[in-house]
Amino acid sequence: MSKKEIVNDVGMMLLGNILLAIGVAFFIVPNDILSGGVAGIAVAVAPIVPINVNDIITILTISLFLIGGAFLGRNFMIKSALSSILYPVLVHVFGLIAAKYTITTDPILASIYAGVFVGGGLGFVFRTGASTGGMDIPPLIIHKYTNIPVSRLVLITDALTVLLGMSIHGIEPALIGLISVYVSSLMVEKTMLLGMAEAQNVMIISDHTDTIIEQIYEQLDRGATIVNAKGAYTREDRYMIMVVILKKQLPLLTRIIEHVDPSAFMIVNNVNEVHGEGFTYNG
């Protein structure tokens, strides 16, 4: 790993932990929001455990960090060590500030902003391949063995955390907490894809392949790939064009195809991530 990559990872981990700690200290803990993560568990079990909420967060964070090291390896443990130490410290520091300055007492508003800060923070940390040492570790472990998207696993884990809170606090606080869980899940996904162009993969079957490709080059400035295909019914050999375009370019591509060959067959798929010239910020 180059020096630039190390600096970039450390910067993203620092930013991620700051955002996460702000969400916990200013919104979750003061308003008893039953969100996901260790903060949600801490708030949920606080009434039945004679320990301060911030101390519960510290204990859970360190414990889960050690579990993550056992399943995800030495490299993960090294990367996550900074977050596992920094996160509890930042929660305590921001907690002292939050005790003096209240941002909101509206539980719904607090739940929304908690999801924004927590999800954004987790997303930045996940981008480095590390963890905060909290409840994001179980999703990362499951993802390693199943390849289920991390954002989806975080949503499931957080939902189970809210159910735990519901069994102690009741239904209404849990319903408010689900708002935070949903917003957090969206923010994790959006943050992890930050910097990636929104793209679509288009498959085109036409009798005017050459003309369509020429128009794609001239009007869209995109490359294309010709794929050999065969009709299942006719058994005729055909050419299929595959092209990846920016989402905003789809209307123009549609007009091109309608003009060149109105009877062309077109399939459009959303693309979650694209690497390469013309799409990523390194292109």
UniProtKB/TrEMBL annotation:
<feature type="transmembrane region" description="Helical">
    <location>
        <begin position="12"/>
        <end position="29"/>
    </location>
</feature>
<dbReference type="InterPro" id="IPR019264">
    <property type="entry name" value="DUF2179"/>
</dbReference>
<feature type="transmembrane region" description="Helical">
    <location>
        <begin position="85"/>
        <end position="103"/>
    </location>
</feature>
<keyword id="KW-1003">Cell membrane</keyword>
<keyword id="KW-1133">Transmembrane helix</keyword>
<dbReference type="Pfam" id="PF10035">
    <property type="entry name" value="DUF2179"/>
</dbReference>
<dbReference type="GO" id="GO:0005886">
    <property type="term" value="C:plasma membrane"/>
</dbReference>
<keyword id="KW-0812">Transmembrane</keyword>
<feature type="domain" description="DUF2179">
    <location>
        <begin position="222"/>
        <end position="276"/>
    </location>
</feature>
<dbReference type="InterPro" id="IPR015867">
    <property type="entry name" value="N-reg_PII/ATP_PRibTrfase_C"/>
</dbReference>
<feature type="transmembrane region" description="Helical">
    <location>
        <begin position="109"/>
        <end position="129"/>
    </location>
</feature>
<keyword id="KW-0472">Membrane</keyword>
<protein>
    <submittedName>
        <fullName>Uncharacterized membrane-anchored protein YitT (DUF2179 family)</fullName>
    </submittedName>
</protein>
<dbReference type="InterPro" id="IPR003740">
    <property type="entry name" value="YitT"/>
</dbReference>
<dbReference type="InterPro" id="IPR051461">
    <property type="entry name" value="UPF0750_membrane"/>
</dbReference>
<dbReference type="Pfam" id="PF02588">
    <property type="entry name" value="YitT_membrane"/>
</dbReference>
<feature type="transmembrane region" description="Helical">
    <location>
        <begin position="56"/>
        <end position="73"/>
    </location>
</feature>
